[in-house]
Amino acid sequence: MSRIGVAFDKARADGRALLVGCMPAGFPTVEGSIAAMTAMVEAGVDVIEVEIPYSDPVMDGPVIQKASDIALAGGVRTADTLRVVEAVAATGAPVVTMTYWNPVERYGVDAFARDLASAGGTGLITPDLIPEEADEWLAASDAYGLDRTFLVSPSSTDARLAMTVGHCRGFVYATAIMGVTGARAQTSDAAPVLVSRVRAVTDLPVGVGLGVGTGAQAGTVAGYADGVIVGSALVRCVLDAEDQAAGLTALRTLSADLAEGVRTPTR
Question: According to the model, what pLDDT value does residue 184 have?
């Protein structure tokens, strides 16, 4: 079983959802991103999602776009992301990587899978790669024992949802809304229905992302999903801070609030 699967099973045994926290590698610097993700783990985040900064992030909203731009302007590349993965994995928390497909293709699919596995990564979330175009990644992930997480959305037809889920390993990423990432005032009404549809065709855990920014919202999503995925709200803690120390303090506070939320789900 994948390490992500083990983490989901442990959370389920504890009667709660699992908390996934996202941060771009190299934001605000490589060492700063390692410090930020380590602080998230220490404050109760179960799984870290390390995003490879990319110049054309079609799913990311303005907060993560700005953070990625800062990382890219600082010279961060895919090799730096692998170093971040290795450092964060050393905390003991499972680390999954989120990436658009172009950086992996440029690196070399087999080489990337090899190096990600070597760094301690558990697998990839690939928002712009669909299973029909993923033969090379499917083979490489099998060769190196990596999970593969494709996305489903409220607009997915039943046939497309079943096909996509059938190619996932580790967990399924259910996008709660039609749109880009970013914390919102209310959680999505479409998400519970989507989770139910996914569960009708697979036993894999379902993580819900897009829109969660508070512990109360995390508790709401934890009431129907196996995992709560939070990105923009955490990134903003660092983006809006006067300095690194203030950013880490804000990050720990929000991470602890989110962790409390998934431990007290609203059903």
Answer: 41
